[in-house]
Queue: 3 jobs
Job 1
Amino acid sequence: MSRATEAGGASVATALAFDMGASSGRALVGELTRAEDGSSRLAVTELHRFDNVPVQVGKHLHWDILRLLHEIKRGIRKAFHSGYAPTTLGIDTWGVDFGLIDANGELLGNPYHYRDAQTEGLIEEVSALVGREALFRQSGVQFMPFNTIYQLYAMRKAGSPKLDAARTLLLTPDLLVYLLTGVASCEFTMATTTQLYDPAEKDWNAPLMERLGIPRGLFLDPVHPGTRLGPLSPEVAKELDVPAIEAVAVGTHDTESAIAAVPASDGPFAYLVCGTWSLLGTELREPLLGPDTLAQDFSNEGGVGGTYQLLKNIMGLWILQECKREWEERGEGNYGYDELVRLASEAAPLRSLIHPDDDRFYGPSEMTAKIRAYCRETGQPEPTSVGEFVRCILESLALRYRQALDQAETLTGRVFGGLHMVGGGIQNELLCQLTADALGRPVWAGPVEASAIGNLLLQFVAQGRCSDLGEARRISAASFPVRTFEPAGNADWEREYARFCDMNRS
């Protein structure tokens, strides 16, 4: 199973993906088999799963980055001890967060978590300094409180000595690759999440950095997905007793790897990457940086193969996850997700709605109280049962997806026949069906493991086993099941969508 084994006329190439989310991470091995007729199939096997638990230290919330490194090492060792022989590895994670490296090449403390409170109020402060329209025109990025720009500005305001001691900023997946290989890099899709990269100039925004007191010298020139970076360091290879396999810069922002795996045809398509966050958008050749895009609160994030993703960040299943955690901590029930979906399906439809992106739902704790307060303030019945809460969340997400898809069509002038949903959230079949009902269009759900699949396929591009993004998507379509959800045609959805839009204009 090696660099490209030959068996029965078919060639097999192997790669190792680490797909890191905000609550857990996984190591998965991918085997790409190319038959004599030229067709290819990808098989994916999960080898290792681990929790990703943030740590509160004093006033700040941090990622436990060294624990994540330890788990990645365990995943590499497991791959070889399980009989696989991957020749490359790739790491994808959430966006915006980073570590700082000093002159000796060492990490300056644990990276801050994007939900840390240090950036509160800084969107308004930075916008007042720079101008909201100018900042969007120079970044194309949705204004989110956790963006890298606000984290760095918060550190400068607090007089953090780390900024003066640092020599290099490495975004989370680049940091983990550096700790494994010693190779410092900055992958393009992650760079565009910072709000400090200017897509029109195709370079870092040095004047903006200077104005905010952010050292320009921290930022490396971006490399594109599919770039081969370098092998495991001799120390890591010896520690793990494995060959020095090569790290590849995949679409290191997990959203971009997931989009690379969308099993769409060559024409324009709309997608929803569904998980803790929901990201709905479409793929473009050039970013849209005008005032209409800003007014609709969309982002332009760098994608794979020279593309840009016009997308909207939506709060996603975070709200449900927090409710579930709350019920468990209060001893009100240890519900599995299947049970929550069953209870929601039994609750009355379209009774209470929330705006998933209301600021109150961003932070953890007391999520059910926040939902009740929103419904009370908007003159709606307050959910009382578990099923009513879950139904409220899922229907509100479905209507938010409808609103974002309508906005994307207005911005691009495109009309989409349906929506491709990928990611772990599509295991919630009720959400998929509610989304089809809200859209009045079909939903094509699959694959579930989209980020890991895209990660692996981009490694095979780097290995020369897959030609480009188009072939990668064809392999994804041929290798993994996609389920179609047709709209039920209930006219109540049109009425409720109008009500939802009246409540939620952004």
Job 2
Amino acid sequence: MFEDETVDVGCPRCGHLNTIQVREFEVGAEAHFVCEGCKTGVKVEGREFHERLARLRQEVEDLEREAAREPRGKPRRPRKGDFQI
């Protein structure tokens, strides 16, 4: 669902924001990249990322489930006293 999305990860050495695809975190427990700013090798552990991604997926599923529910009963018809001018 989010595989093609990207996240920005700050370099611990220079602070440069590097863009990494979510798919790199999903494949393994960690991702490795070379900082575009200072060319330092950076390892990012994916444990916290996986936990947050699981929560996000659950929230999306809950929203989809809630949106699929049909409203119960007919909506109340507005009455004369409901409007203010």
Job 3
Amino acid sequence: MTDDIETIELTVPGEGAGQRLDAYAASVTEFSRNAVQRLISDGSLLLNGRETQAKAKLREGDTITLTPPPPALTDVVPQDIPIEIVYQDADIAVINKRKGMVVHPAAGNPDGTLVNAILYHVKDLSGVGGELRPGIVHRIDRMTSGLLVIAKNDAAHVFLSEKLKTHEVARVYYALCEGNLREDSGTVDAPIARSRSDRKRMAVDPEGRPAVTHWRVLERFGEATFLRVELETGRTHQIRVHMAYIKHPLIGDEVYGRGKNSLGIEGQALHAGELRLTHPRTGEEMTFTAPLPEEMVSALEKLRRRQ
């Protein structure tokens, strides 16, 4: 695994003052309290740039710096998990990922992922993504359904990665957001970074990486709006963060929205429905589509009946 380890820097807000360092760090990161205590013991978690004890009491404005340990190098085994392969040739495979499936192994999800499935169903994956992410060129969230492309050799992987960086791979999503957007279309141009107070969230941050999302209204229901959304960049949780930023979070989004809803949506109502790319070997412009999942079709029908 060759990914760089991302150092996490958190600034303690007012509500964190008086809490123990280990308890607070565990509450705002993906690490358990025991794991946080181990990081403190080995000097991987610092308070205001210095080593300290787990029981240290926090003050507002304190800075916590955490350097996660590298992921364990484990054998990722092929698993006979059903997946929908939309297209496949000697260089690429396009998968329509179902909602609820994690893309690659990580803490808390050692198997049962899309990577485990493609190792079983797709042969000769590229090694550029490393041991835990073979063939993975880009990702979509666990509770987002839809299309992603897999590279079957290193040349294809490098080619597609470069096209993503130069915004030459088009990714179109369909989403249901809360409320009624007055305009027919718009663009959110707001940089995104890891939240400074909650490691599990992303946030709009002036010091973040550039992020641009284009949206267009397809249908209005008053209480909700059906959108076509196209990414210009591909930051973690980008559409979810940007829609929440303009006060129209995605329906069902348990992190950036209200989560609970009357439409039967579990997790964010977001589907990667169209993928346009240049084939890495032939240069052919290719477009792939995936129909809306039944959950979103049902939600749209409910909204239309309510009008």
